[in-house]
Amino acid sequence: MFSVKLNGGRRINGILRGFDPFMNLVIDETIEETKTGEKHAIGMVVSYSLYSFP
């Protein structure tokens, strides 16, 4: 199980399927947890890094 804290007080939990040196992530069987404790099954998530490198 892999957990990532996102902006807005959200957290996603799932199975890490892949990543690269730029911190792009592929997470499968993902469940989103909101700040209020609600949980939503959202399936596969592809998270792109918002950082810029020189």
From TrEMBL:
Belongs to the snRNP Sm proteins family. Keywords: Ribonucleoprotein. It comes from the Eukaryota. GO terms for cellular component: catalytic step 2 spliceosome; P granule; precatalytic spliceosome; SMN-Sm protein complex; spliceosomal tri-snRNP complex; U1 snRNP; U12-type spliceosomal complex; U2 snRNP. It holds the Pfam family LSM. InterPro entries: Lsm7/SmG-like (IPR044641), LSM_dom_sf (IPR010920), Sm_dom_euk/arc (IPR001163). GO terms for molecular function: RNA binding. Residues 3-46 form the Sm domain. It comes from Dreissena polymorpha (Zebra mussel). GO terms for biological process: mRNA splicing, via spliceosome. This is Sm protein G.
